[in-house]
Amino acid sequence: MIAFLEGRLLHKSPDSIVVLAQGVGYQVSVPLSSFYELPAPEAEVRLYIHTHVRQDAIQLFGFLTPEEKTIFLLLLGVSGVGPKVALNILSGISPRELNQALLKEDTARIQRIPGVGKKTAERIVLELKDKVRKLDLGGESLTSQTKTPAMEAVYEDALSALINLGYLKSVAEKALTRAGQEIDGTPSLEELLRKALKNLSR
User: How many domains does the chain have?
Assistant: First the structure.
């Protein structure tokens, strides 16, 4: 069972990517949310993997963040939702926005994802709303449970600084999330930026 994959990106397309690791090329399906954040071919990539085994095939699904993988696995547990539909959902909505929609029981938002009908959206909300509440999947940025007003201000300043440096907003948010988890208490702007830039350089 493959749970994590690190190697050189040989090829990427919206349908799938190929990662070379220890002489083996792994074909991995990724959601568009991960695809848009991938580096150019020949660069190193690190992916959280779900190995899906069927009678006639073994498929790998990859994600840049643990949150994406967690949401993907939760979606697979919903009646009538298979890997293709779960991947399509993650391509149409971020983990943070999906989490918020589930907590608000906003079936209309989920139904706006291409390929998701009313009944499927209702099942997703019914079966996952309590699970995401227990897991505390606050989103891709620092969670509301840990973000004090002071931290909110520092976070927004740090996010603005990273965007001004040329990083995509989604990439900057993920780096700040990791940085915030590594720092006890309310960090200074300099400390948060230093940690985030260190994560971005890996």
Answer: 3
Instruction: Report the pLDDT value the prediction gives residue 11, as an integer from 0 to 100.
Output: 95
Q: Which of the listed residues 25, 45, 63 is the one where a domain comes to its end? A: 63
Same domain, 167 and 126: no
Q: Minimal CA–CA distance to 87: which of 57, 122, 114? A: 114
> Using CB atoms within 10 A of its CB, is residue 126 exposed (0-12), middle (13-18) or buried (19+)?
middle
Q: Is 125 a residue whose pLDDT tops 90?
A: yes
Residue indicated by tokens 């959206």? 121
Identify the pLDDT of residue 143.
38
Rounded distance, CA 162 to CA 14, Å? Answer: 26
**What is the rounded distance in angstroms from the CA atom of residue 4 to the CA atom of residue 147?**
30
| DSSP string over 46-107 | EEEEEEEE-SS-EEEEEESSHHHHHHHHHHHTSTT--HHHHHHHHHHS-HHHHHHHHHTT-H
122 vs 148, more confident: 122
The answer to whether the pTM exceeds 0.90 is: no
Rounded Cα distance, 109 and 138, in Å: 18
The CATH number linked to 89 is 1.10.150.20
Position 187 scores a pLDDT of 74
